[in-house]
Design brief:
Blueprint (H helix, E strand, L loop, with lengths): L1 H27 L4 H65 L1 H32 L34 E2 L16 E4 L7 H10 L1 H7 L3 E4 L6 E3 L1 H5 L8 H4 L2 E6 L2 H11 L16 E6 L6 E2 L7 E8 L2 E7 L10 E5 L3 E6 L3 E7 L7 E8 L1
Parallel strand pairs: 1-2
Antiparallel strand pairs: 2-11, 3-4, 3-5, 5-6, 6-13, 7-12, 8-11, 8-13, 9-10, 9-12
Helix pairs in contact: 1-2
Membrane topology: Single-pass type II membrane protein
Keywords: Cytoplasm, Golgi apparatus, Membrane, Signal-anchor, Transmembrane, Transmembrane helix
InterPro entries: BRAP
């Protein structure tokens, strides 16, 4: 405190001496008393401003220093964490690149995989009991679709396709009808209408409520609303109603029992192409009002896709995949009832549009092969 007082007295003495020098210089310069006082006032203001800024700067520094001291432990902890993380990454990289170490770890981990999974399964039981709907993820082949998936330098055998062929009565096993060529065929199948689906659900509601318990309804007022088969099949689909006429329903079944029931009604696709391998469990039933707007068909588990039109009509548009957009053209066809459209997901992405030729509810049965 004494040093601070001495510093203040020295400033005042210097200030007083400066004022005396200013006054003496004014008298020597033959300035009037008024002019000398004006100059001294200006000097006084500049002196006071300078000292106030110095005081404010000192106070600000004194306020910031404790904050800086308080933040030092956090910065130190962050640097320690960052260094530990980088060191761990470096160790993992070295271990994975060193083949003998990698083989050693893999051989030792084999003995712990099944016991570890067993423990994990037991630990998850309380969570599953609280959230039973989580079991639906078990049957999913893919939980998250990668929107950036691309196949570099993928060949595009669809570049010569200008229309969707109707190969009814043709030998579709011929080499010229390869996976890049979409086609449709007429099949001898019974018509499955919305009313037939209501009867099917009513006879087996226990199975469907357990293993295919929800569907997605899109209407002009609500898009993508999750609902249940029970709530849908207790209603009448009035095609004269504006809302029902523009409603789209997607019912997805990816478990064995409901899929078996659907197959017993829709049947197994006939005359599958030669490149179709094993059939997948997943099946989709698309129900559309006569004026239901366009929508993209969801990605299926298999790459060889079929759309079986069971009642009503829809216009199917096949757009080339991103890898083939520059080489292939968009094609479309009106799919009438009793026809199946085949195409490969590798080269085509399907959309469904309303058909002006129908006034009834459209029911499409969608599945895929590997």
């Amino acid at each position: 405190m004494k040093s601070k007082g001495k510093h203040k007295d020295s400033n005042l003495s210097a200030y007083k001496k400066k004022l005396e020098n200013v006054r003496a210089f004014g008298l020597e310069s033959n300035l009037s008393e008024t002019e000398i006082c004006s100059v001294m006032d200006e000097y006084m203001k500049s002196f006071m401003m300078k000292n106030s800024l110095m005081t404010e700067g000192t106070a600000r520094t004194s306020r910031l220093l404790p904050r800086a001291r308080n933040s030092m432990p956090y910065l130190k902890n962050f640097l320690i964490f960052l260094a530990s993380f980088l060191f761990s990454v470096l160790i993992m990289y070295i271990v994975l690149q060193h083949k003998p170490t990698q083989y050693f770890i893999q051989s030792k981990l084999q003995d712990f995989i099944y016991p570890g999974m067993k423990v994990l399964r037991k630990l998850s039981l309380p969570i599953i009991s609280l959230f039973p709907s989580l079991t639906n993820f078990y049957d999913e082949s893919c939980l998250v679709v990668n929107p950036f998936f691309r196949v570099p330098d993928m060949p595009c055998p669809c570049e010569d396709v200008k229309a969707i062929l109707n190969l009814t009565g043709e030998d579709i096993k011929r080499e010229q009808y390869h996976s890049g060529v979409p086609f449709m065929v007429k099949v001898d199948k019974e018509e499955i209408s919305f009313e037939n689906l209501k009867v099917l659900y009513g006879n087996h509601n226990t199975v469907f409520d357990r293993d295919a318990s929800y569907l997605i309804i899109s209407s002009p007022s609500n898009q993508g609303v999750k609902s249940t088969p029970a709530s849908l099949f207790t209603l009448e689909w009035d095609t004269n109603d504006k809302t029902w006429s523009s409603t789209h329903v997607q019912w997805r079944c990816n478990r064995m029992e409901p899929t078996r029931l659907l197959r017993s009604h829709f049947g197994v696709p006939e005359k599958e192409p030669s490149y179709a391998a094993g059939v997948t469990i997943e099946k989709l039933v698309m129900m559309d009002g006569p004026r239901a707007p366009s929508y993209h068909l969801p990605t299926t588990d298999g790459t060889t896709v079929f759309i079986q039109q069971s009642s009503g009509s829809r216009v199917i548009v096949l757009n080339p995949a991103n890898e083939c957009k520059e080489k292939c053209s968009t094609v479309s066809v009106e799919l009438p009832p009793g026809h199946i459209l085949w195409f490969s997901w590798w080269y085509w992405r399907a959309s469904s549009l309303p058909s002006p030729a129908t006034s009834s509810v459209s029911v499409s049965y969608v599945g895929s092969y590997l």
